[in-house]
Design brief:
The protein has a 5-stranded parallel sheet with strand order 3-2-1-4-5, with helices on both faces. The protein has 20 helices and 5 strands. It folds into 3 domains: 6-127, HUPs (Rossmann fold, 3-Layer(aba) Sandwich), CATH 3.40.50; 128-161 and 203-289, Serine Threonine Protein Phosphatase 5, Tetratricopeptide repeat (Alpha Horseshoe), CATH 1.25.40; 300-479, DNA Cyclobutane Dipyrimidine Photolyase, subunit A, domain 3, CATH 1.10.579.10. It has helices at residues 20-27, 50-69, 81-92, 105-116, 146-155, 195-200, 205-217, 223-226, 239-243, 249-262, 267-289, 311-319, 325-337, 342-355, 360-370, 376-387, 402-409, 414-419, 439-444, 460-479, and strands spanning 6-10, 32-38, 74-78, 96-100, 121-124. The chain has 480 residues and is mainly alpha-helical. β1, α1 and β2 form a beta-alpha-beta unit. α10 (249-262) packs antiparallel against α11 (267-289), α11 crosses α16 (376-387) and α13 (325-337) packs across α14 (342-355). It is globular, with a radius of gyration of 24 Å.
Length: 480
Amino acid sequence: MSTAPILLWFRQDLRLNDNRALSAACDTGQPLVLVYVLDDDTPGAWQFGGASRWWLHHSITALAGELAKLECPLILRRGPALPTLQTLMAETKAAALYCTRAYEPWARKTETELASCGITIKRFAGNLLFEPEALRTKSGTPFRVFTPFWKACQAAPPPKPPLPRPKMINSPDSLPASDKIEAWQLLPTAPNWSGGLQENWQPGEDGARAKLIGFLDGPVTDYADMRDRPDRTGTSRLSPHLHFGEISPHQCWHAARAITDTTPDATIGGQSFLRELAWREFSNHLLFHWPNLPETPFQPKFAAMQWVDDPDSLRAWQRGQTGIPIVDAGMRELWQTGWMHNRVRMIVASLLVKNLQLDWRSGEAWFWDTLVDADLANNSASWQWVAGSGADAAPYFRIFNPVLQGRKFDPEGAYVRRFVPELAAMPAKHIHAPWEASDAILSEAGVVLDKTYPQPIVDLRASRQRALSSYKTMREAHQG
């Protein structure tokens, strides 16, 4: 048996449970050097956003704490991944580099470059249920539509069961120097905007496990019906934990499958949750096969779309000051907590892209900076879906009416009251369209439009027609 160490490179797999790269490295019996590299050379637009940096700080701190219990330090280095890992391989005289696969274009490029440099690199699955090469249409091409993709997931051999965490990890006698995480300055300084994140989230493996257990012990029963209700606690809120790999999709899949098979009341909700996990898979498969997805319309005809340049409207949307309550509630939830309910994500995105006719990439960039679950595949695929330009996308002429959406999914206005407190005293009948209320109702609620709360920045009916006209013009331009 070789005594040369193995360099175990943590990436988006910040966990000890069900970490196949870590388990395989431990099984060799060789000592392990565990490392995380903060690569700020990621393409400029896709460096970690502010919310992701906050999460990363706490997630790494949690992982280092768990490793300390096994008397195994986590080495931190900052710099471009390729030369940083080359340096660490030389410093430690490591025999091989083990890691979990990643699917972003730059991550795949780094994996290829490491192998071409003569480094023995062993990559392991673990961040997806099905590897992108594993699922194909009958004609051998990647899936472009979700429903047949989901059917293929169901027909494929089930995902592998989760692995237990290692009972022990051998470390070499000497270890390379490590950065202090505080030196990375991932946390915000004055003004500190992270208070809401701290109140709502527990980054790390323990927080992920608590979220999964809490979901399966309760909300999963009504998940199929309640997942569209932002006024209820009806979703798993596992997305940031999955993105950073604090929990694996295999753990979620098998836990949900177990309760679906054993608890009749949870069958429908459990199946719906598994389907949502498959949407995450679908987005990652799209990114793998179409790496330009974050920047380029999936459907070429949308290259002819003429977007509006309106910084003031974009700023109002970002700040939750559009005058449309369900939209403003969502944008303020995002700013305060680093997360937004998925139904509301679709509503706010539709307003930006279709009613305001602002480029979907401006919304994608804002979400990237402010979401704790900012994920390249999910973020880009979802924005293109709403814009109508993506794979299996909502038709461009499907334009969400935010007033009707608010009344349907936040019928009593509880969600709006929570995040738009200036409307808290509005009656439920009028809270989603305060501009339709009489002066007497507004006065009783203490609302003065354009003073305590803005008038809508866009006419919903007129802007819908304008969007449809723009779509027609784009289609004609594409057809020539």
